[in-house]
Amino acid sequence: MATRASEAESFGYRLWRYDGAPGELIPLLQSAQEHFGYIPRRAIKYISEVTSIPESAIYGVITFYSQFRLQPMGKYVVRVCAGTACHVSGAKLLIETLQDELGIEVGDTTDDGLFTLFTVACLGCCSLAPVMMVNDTTHGRLTAAEVRKILRGYRRQAQAQGAEAGSAAGSRA
Amino acid sequence: MKSVLVGMGTCGLSAGAQAVHDKLRELLAAHADAAKLGITGCIGMCYREPLVEVRENGRRVIYGGVTPERAAEIVARHVLAGEVLEDYVAYDLDGDAPARGSETGFLGVQERIVLRNCGTIDPESLEEYEAAGGYAALRKALGEMTPGDIITEIKNSGLRGRGGAGFPTGMKWSFAAQNAGDVKYVVCNADEGDPGAFMDRSVLEGDPHAVLEGMIICARAIGASFGYIYCRAEYPLAIKRLEIAITAARERGYLGRDIFGSGFDFDLKIKQGAGAFVCGEETALFASIEGERGMPRIRPPFPAEKGLWRKPTNNNNVETYANVAWIISHGAEAYRRHGTEKSPGTKVFALAGKVVRGGLAEVPMGTTIRELVYDIGGGIKAGREFKAVQMGGPSGGCIPAAMADTPVDFESIPQTGAIMGSGGMVVLDDMSCMVEIARFFLDFTQSESCGKCTFCRIGTLRMLEALERITRGEGTPEDIPKLEQLAVQIKEASLCGLGQTAPNPVQTTLRYYRDEYEAHIKQHTCPAHYCEALVDFHIDPEKCVGCTLCAKNCPVDAISGKPKETHVIDHEICVQCGRCITSCNFDAVYKH
Prior knowledge:
Structural class of chain A: alpha+beta
CATH superfamily of the largest domain in chain A: Glutaredoxin
Radius of gyration of chain B: 26 Å
Oligomer: heterodimer
CATH class of the largest domain in chain B: Alpha Beta
Distance between the termini of chain A: 19 Å
Number of strands of chain B: 18
Structural class of chain B: alpha/beta
Strand content of chain A: 5-15%
CATH topology of the largest domain in chain A: Glutaredoxin
Number of helices of chain B: 23
Shape of chain A: globular
Strand content of chain B: 15-25%
Strand order of the largest sheet of chain A: 2-1-3-4
Helix content of chain B: 25-40%
CATH topology of the largest domain in chain B: Rossmann fold
CATH class of the largest domain in chain A: Alpha Beta
């Protein structure tokens, strides 16, 4: 596990490079999120110290933009497209199916930390509607049954990875 | 030597182009003397992705719907044995001969100025862009023209902003040029937030240098030395291709100091959006670049006078910049030969929704809706009826099928109550409920409202609540006049385009589909059989296999049936929650 000091250093490189140029707050926040997976409280503190922007103002910017997360996300981030073309092609049904399959509402993470569910306004793949992204993979031309199959596939993948890690640890013992 | 090109835009990748590319690389590794493998951007035939082109001696054969198996066939038969697989050919272009293939209706009628290189060149190669004539316009602009000449040429071309507002571009540039200042900025709005629009994404992924060249020429014209491309974070591939292009352009000397020895300096940077639709509004965009909450600012002063960091700024859309180099190279006269008198040139449309052939179509201004939906789009999917076309995203409106002969340009479309917008065109069929479409857009604009203006912040919420009540069957006759009144008030009292146009979907649907609103309110029915609260759920005996999943998931036990026998829903008990539809793996549950 990385210690707090080393975590600060790796994200710290960007902070260290900060030269007072205006307009750097959003790129810094994006870099923090890429590093930590979300924006933890201490990242806000570091940015505030380096840029002299008050923490409250930083918090205001974070909560304005939908990209920024203040909570850690699941292993698989599911983004269902809720754009116009996907909407008329049945996105609502997919969202309900996903909520049902995962047992969570949009915006939440499953208790086992595997899946986080969001809707996005438009992914720009309208000809493949309805579309969802799981991390960086886009799945198109979906039906309710397809969606369940895809999610179960990811669940199995996670279990397999967990089993591998478990057996690797066991063999080292 | 043949070239084998795989379409690797986001659509292609989502449809499976990476697997096809990997397979081709594996198969062609042993035949380096026969063929060279490359990538290209999106040619616009999104409905036939993944696409693979085999190019030789100027003949381009584009195969559609390619799988790794079919890719193997293409290598064995076409690449190695020279035999074209006629059955899989989407488009076959050989010099001046008439085009052949199954998709000539889609590609054949387009006039591609903005998309000139998309699907033709490797977007990650500056050499290919130059070979296609790229940066010749910049050379001409710096070597043979004064900044004033450049502005005159753009003015004469009649180019109007392609982001939606249609403001004359040459005039906009002249304002920024006139305003004194040693620091000026050129900004490209690549935030493309309209749901259903993906024109800018395809240009950025397929021909990023076209946008850069346009921006550099603009900077020369107005006297700017730095620029920004504000690109939404939901377009990671576009950002990546832009970064590659910027690095290459810098190395070649198209960006940086003393470009071509002209004494002119210009460089630019990408700023990523962070997920706010309102940042597509230019003053909110500037606020975002400045590191603040993306809230619009009052105009005047306009950006040409005081924009980014209060300096004279020229802000244009991706598509607008993509036209510039072509106009400088070919001249204003040539540009005016396309389109109409008041709306010269072409426009890229993103056709999506219930149309058979969805993708990008670049057509001359003045093309009718009918031509776009039927000739290019191939008509309505699944043999259903064409009901309306939704244009202009959340700022736009719905135009009924009866008005399909309306030409698409800056003059005719606003007369219908809609706007042309940035080019998103979603086709709707008889199964679309127009009240629900209005609700959908209000849901979007309500959540994207920045909150600065009271009427937008609260007014859109009240409109949304009214529409939700109506689609749930709880609407009252007072809801319609209330919606109409709110629409007028929100438009008048909003600072920016988001609030000023948020009521458009409601106003246009009320104008053309009042009867649907009344059916929801007075008869508690949804004529399109869409709104769940107002329809009954049924199980199709042809499709039901008796798996009992629906019955097990029904929260009110409204479904009865024995295993392996057709199940039945009791409408008296059913509460229209929809769980049966989501549980069924056989698509046997439907609404009527």
